[in-house]
Amino acid sequence: MKTKSPSESAFFNPRILLSFVLCLIAVLLALVGLGLSSAGSLSAQAPNANQQSSGSAVGASYKNDISPPLRSMPPWKASDLKAEHEANENPKVPYRHHDTPDPVIQKSHVSTLNLLAPNVPATILNFNGIPFPGVGCNCAPPDTNGAVGQTQYVQIVNEGFQVFDKATGSSLLGPNSISSIWNGFGGACQNGGAGDPVVLYDHIANRWLISQFASATGGAPITDECVAISTTANATGTYARYGFHLGSNFFDYPHLSVWPDGYYMSMNVFNSTGTSYLGPQAFAFDRAKMLANLPATFVSPRGPLGGTVDPFLPADLDGPTSPPSGAPATFVGFPGQGTSPNYTTYHFHADFTTPANSTFTTFASPAAAGFTALCPSTRACVPQAGVASNSNLDGIGDRLMFRLAYRNFGTYESVVGNYTVSAGGVAAVRWFELRNVTAGPVTVYQQSTYQPDTTWRWMGSAAMDGQGNLAIGFSASSSTINPQLRYAARLAADPINTLAQGEAHLFDGTGSQSGTSNRWGDYSSLTVDPVDDSTFWYTNEYYSTTGSFNWRTRIGSFKIASGSPTPTPTPTPTPTPTPTPTPTPAPDFSLSISPSTVTLTRNGGTAHYTVTINPTGGFSSTVQLSVSGLPSGTTGSFSPNPATTSSALTLNVSSSTAPGSYTFTVSGTSGSLTHTATAKLSKNNKP
User: What is the pLDDT of residue 579?
Assistant: First the structure.
């Protein structure tokens, strides 16, 4: 129905005007009533009508529709390209980390049997992806990532995507601009797409997710997130398109994940000018509605967590086994704390029916091994061959790298991730595996800094296959080599805390980057084939000739092992046949604490525990013990420390310590080995 404009004379008839005003009031009252009585009414809200209360946000897609098939979209034209420019730079996250010795550095290429040659297999497919200019953006860096589906591989960069046949590597569609997906949609998603793209494959529903952030004004701040969900497993078909307005702040560095009850997202939030870090913020999008092509809401039960809270990532589901029924989505934070650095583990329960019931809480804080921050003052410190030091690359050492990969193995859960640290004077990949992140107790099963030589390694991405074998892809460079793409791996049966299968080259660049504000992408991506659950797919950037604004991208697939159960690592053949030696278990240990809980009265007092060191494989070294996660007003001490068999842990609990139940973590470090155990301290209100 067309509403008459004020210029039409009938509008000024007093009786008609009065009737119009009364009708308008009635409509407004009805809409208010609907808004108060039903969360479903959020789907009709305008972008600026997101509900904000006590730091929480509830909003709705301000528009959703179904796109034409992407294969029928008009291809991009050279005239569509913008002038060469830098992609939106990440505003800086403050560094608060205090450097401490790194006890978990892997300083050599080792295999399970200490062989000289690495065992990691070569690539299966290895082909070029999207080249500069990245279709629509004509910018640097590319922020390369990708995902693998039933029959296709989709790569995405700033600001383009391409669909490949995963059996041959041949192109099926594109490259085309991401914004072309929103042709005809209008608004920020069609006209203000600004990059930081992410593509995921939702293997539960066999759908693709493509997203990028956008500006409603055409410039800063970035306020919108555009998300498209394919309607089938064919990435070249139609998509359910959504535009979400998140608020008035500057929302940066979006990373999304698939979880059974929602699509989850982390953001680093700044003030509208991008000059003040407000902290990370978590969002959940109504996956069920988006899969059904219906108007969808998002919830964020807490706003930005504050400028002293480190960025986090949401766990992205891999493998055929879903998390335990009703398990909350898990987020893990970068261990950049000034003291007692830890992998802060958060639980997000999203309630799309009653958004007020949604919660985002800290669940655990397992300790991270000490490390030295990578170039915290300049960020740009990674050298390259053939260019001056003012073209050193940004190592982005202030956050976790994409992805945080989750698997449920039935008897335990694993989350693997990585970040970049300084070790031995070069950049190194610190990788970690947390276990039992949804039900607890959350433990650091293994963590290690991969620094086998003097090459700089950064921009990593970690994933684990269905057998528990782990791989990490990353960039590598130095003053004597151009940036390269490499990957390293470990079998599930290898000694923990080591990438024992060694390292392989996926592709060696033949040029270095100069200029472009020293930036080398914001992330790369390693994913696992959902069909065989064993083939890894990695994508990252490189340069073929030295210069500015001429990056290239590469895509490669490889397997660490095949077959089930996990195979025993096989040594490299030697010139003379010899019997295969039986691997000797590496010396190791675990920790246990008894009793599991000590309860004190409200007056406080002393709680006594025994920490036992359980050796395996002939372990006989001393273990240095520490405790974290204690409540305010409580201190702990060990006797003896370091210890070889056991140590008495004494907690002195002040009367000022608030009543409650507290889970604390004891960490034990010996050389490159670090293990943890948890127990509880309970203080009640009774005298």
Answer: 44
